Amino acid sequence: MKRILIVEDDAALSRGIAFAFRRDGYETVAASTARQARDILEAEAVDIILLDVGLPDGDGMDLCQQLRARSDTPVIMLTARDMETDVVSGLLAGADDYVTKPFSLSILRARVEALLRRAAPDRQGGIRSGPFRLDTRLCRLYRGEEEIPVSATEYRLLAYLMTNAGQVLTKEQILAEAWDANGLFVDENTLQVNISRLRAKIEPDPRRPQVIKTVHGMGYMWNGGR
Ligand code: CA
Prior knowledge:
By secondary structure, this protein is an alpha/beta fold. It has helices spanning 11-23, 34-43, 60-68, 84-92, 105-117, 152-163, 171-177, 188-202; strands at residues 3-7, 27-31, 48-52, 54-55, 58-59, 75-79, 97-100, 126-129, 132-135, 140-143, 146-148, 169-170, 212-215, 219-222. The chain is elongated and about 55 Å long. The relative contact order is 0.09. The mean pLDDT is 86. Calcium ion binds next to strand 4.
């Protein structure tokens, strides 16, 4: 059974979220302050964290940064502030996703399920697929023992493709996830250039790509093996 930590000081909202997820078969544990959340995380493991941005004893984003320093547990920020800069700094603090209040519980549930479905990084801090291993701590790609050098943009692309292995990802989805070293979103041309470079590095025959497959009219799919 998956355990969700709900960090929210609005008691009614916290109860509402807990009620909805328990009904769906999740276990929930609640904290109303950053300090309580830290105590819970010292004592027990959770699968995902829902984290309010504004807590009575601190900023949820600071807590998120502290969590990130020592764990890969997915974090969804619950934010009442929908300004662009806040969203960006939330994601920079290491959150995996965010929802803006007021949100519907069905949207929150969908986001939670999507994050839990993503391939869990293994204990070495990497995503494995066939001969490939993406080290998500050092941001490096390996084939067996050999490191294959990749750029920051190529790494982000790989992380997104490999995390969603076996799923067709549309260009729009990929473009929304991939940005370059300067934090700029890439355009479709840049995406194609980066896919070609990656293929040249990892495909046995780059002219007939099998690892990063093109799904015509749709997008791309990672097919590197289990
Ligand atoms: Ca709050």
